[in-house]
Write a structure and sequence with these properties.
The complex is a heterodimer. Chain A contains ten helices and ten strands. By secondary structure, chain A is of the alpha/beta class. Chain A is globular. Chain B has a domain of 43 residues. Classes of the chains: A alpha/beta, B alpha/beta.
Chain lengths: 299, 288
């Protein structure tokens, strides 16, 4: 069993009328099973309303399955006595940084989690220092969070989770409200957590280019897992993704367009160097095939 | 008929030690019917700028003219200005409040004191413009999907009959298709009604695809002003101020450096694909 395992998970939101009588229910998560290995970088894609946030909230016991079962680090999330252990194992970062920061000073905010866990003061300070260093925010430790940019605030939120020494971090659209630089900062920090600190990352996002380095991608639709595979496998299925209201990175889309226009390129190109190399090969082979292709004069 | 800013500066807490110049001597003209993208990192002055255009903020120095009239002149009808220059804030769906979609969109024009038939005609028209058909009229706005909620909220502003529509990050948090739907509808609005559009965005790909002109803000000044291909040519300068260019720009520059005979200014997938096929000498073979 991996760090997070879900078995046939169903979650239903119950709709009630004004008197509180049950009017009906909406199945937001429908028969989802997955097993996430410790140390993996997992991405979850899906359109608005596909159930990805609902699923994510099962990963640190904010929601409990209506049917089926979720285990975090081997513990059933419904076990009430394990609640705090579960939330310590799997931390969560949300979309809006302003809703997650409570401290008046950056280092105080980061220390909030371990302090609540009863960590001795000296160790709290050590944890605050290493967490802020891990996300590149140590030099801002004495600043007021209000004066930080969105990307910086979001990195402070991540440090706050890190200070609790989780095995796994779930990030629910952490870059949706950020400018390009802020997005880059946060993605870089998250990748470092995975590469250097070996923390399992589960990243939910609508920005396709953020997840080309993931180990595995799940695509959700109508509460189910509709596609599953490596980024290369997933992003080579351009039409299917579009039908699910999603997209592929621009470089992948450009390669796909060029294929449609007759170029012989490998499927699922994910990065700019890959595309450039493939086009250079294509250029070389064209020269060989058609000697006049060298100086291409219009007829 | 246009918006003109003449040496506009805005200073927060002017005259105190905390004084901070959010806009710094901005001169700019936005002609009617243009689709303008406004980009800049968080804190560069974008939101302060757009709030000057419908009189929510008053310039500390300089003048803002709408259709040739100074909007801060005594006696200028600001209420009329605000129905002509519609402003859609970030996450506008947080402002939905009525019992159903149709009533919510009616709220604005009703407050203008228009007769009931006119109010309803405008609401219907606005909902059509954002692609919400009559089947949604009686639904609670809170039961719509994220993208639909946002379109309903935009319809609320459109029902005021604006000539200029300013949208502050209208696609934040939406899935790729939702983003495309909103932007296509905005583009259609511009083409069909000749409305002036000012789009504040953090997505360089979206801006490259849809707008006629890009304004880049940095430290309260307009740093670059031009068509997307001209502005994204300066991608290195954009990175220095916390922005970027669309991924396509980087691809084209990488190819150019490797000796491909491509126009590195291509900013959309379509343009880029055309350039690459041409450079490989493949566009002719296809046509033959």
């Amino acid at each position: 069993m991996g760090i997070i395992k879900a078995q046939d998970v169903v979650y239903e939101y119950v709709k009630r009328d004004e008197e509180g009588n049950v009017e009906g229910s909406i199945r937001a998560v429908d028969q989802v099973s997955l097993d996430i290995e410790q140390g993996d970088f997992i991405a979850i894609l899906g359109h608005n309303g596909s159930g990805k946030s609902t699923l994510a909230k099962h990963m640190n016991a904010i929601l409990y399955p209506t049917e089926g079962c979720v285990w975090v680090d081997g513990k059933d999330t419904r076990a009430e006595e394990e609640l705090w252990n579960i939330r310590q194992s799997a931390g969560m970062v949300f979309q809006n940084p302003d809703n997650q920061i409570i401290g008046q000073v950056v280092e105080e905010d980061v220390g909030f989690g371990p302090e609540n866990m009863g960590v001795p003061t000296k160790e709290i300070w050590e944890r605050v220092e290493e967490s802020l260093k891990a996300v590149g925010m140590y030099q801002y430790r004495k600043h007021s969070p209000n004066k930080l940019s969105g990307g910086q605030k979001q990195r402070v939120s991540i440090a706050g989770v890190l200070a609790m020494h989780p095995k796994c971090i779930v990030l629910d659209e952490p870059t949706a409200m950020l400018d390009p630089n802020g997005r880059k900062e946060v993605v870089r920090a998250v990748r470092a957590l995975n590469d250097v600190e070996k923390i399992t990352v589960i990243l939910i996002t609508h920005y396709m280019e953020e997840i080309v380095h993931a180990d595995k991608v799940f695509v959700m639709d109508q509460g189910r897992i509709a596609m599953e595979g490596t980024p290369r496998e997933i992003f080579s299925r351009v039409e299917e993704l579009k039908a699910l209201r999603l997209d592929v990175p621009q470089v992948t889309l450009l390669a796909y367009e060029l294929q449609k226009q007759g170029l012989d390129l490998p499927r699922g190109i994910l990065t700019i160097p890959e595309l450039v190399a493939a086009l250079e090969r294509e250029k070389g082979s064209l020269k060989k095939d058609t000697p006049e292709g060298k100086d291409k004069k219009c007829p | 008929m246009s918006i003109v800013l003449e040496h506009v500066s805005y200073i927060y807490e002017a005259g105190t030690p905390l004084a901070q110049r959010a806009l710094d001597d901005i001169c700019l003209e936005i002609p009617n019917g243009q689709f303008v993208g406004l980009i800049g990192h968080t804190g560069s002055g974008k939101s302060t700028l757009v709030q000057h255009l419908n009189g929510l903020m008053k310039a500390t120095e300089g003048h803002v003219y709408y259709n040739g009239e100074d909007i801060d002149a005594p006696g200028y009808d600001k209420k009329k200005l605000r129905s002509s220059v519609g402003l859609v804030f970030q996450y506008p769906e947080h402002q939905l409040f009525e019992i159903d979609v149709f009533s919510d969109v009616c709220f604005g024009p009703k407050n203008l004191g228009l007769p009931k038939e006119e109010v309803e005609r405008r609401a219907r028209e606005a909902l059509n413009l954002v692609g919400l058909s009559e089947e949604y009229d009686k639904q609670s706005p809170f039961e719509l999907s994220g993208g639909q909620k946002r379109r309903a909220a935009i319809a609320g502003v459109l029902a005021m009959g604006p000539k200029v529509l300013i949208l502050d990050e209208p696609t934040a948090g939406l899935d790729p298709r939702g983003r495309e739907e909103i932007l296509q509808q905005i583009k259609r609005l511009q083409v069909q009604t000749g409305m002036t559009i000012l789009l504040v965005s953090h997505s360089m790909e979206d801006v490259a695809e849809y707008v006629d002109r890009i304004l880049v803000m940095n430290h309260g000044r307009v740093m670059l002003d031009g068509a997307p291909r001209e502005v994204f040519r300066h991608y290195k300068e954009l990175e220095e101020v916390g922005l970027a260019a669309p991924q396509v720009t980087y691809i084209m520059h990488a190819l150019h450096e490797k000796g491909f005979d491509v126009d590195a200014d291509a900013t959309t997938i379509e343009e880029a694909a055309g350039e690459i096929m041409k450079a490989l000498g493949r566009s002719e073979t296809l046509r033959n």
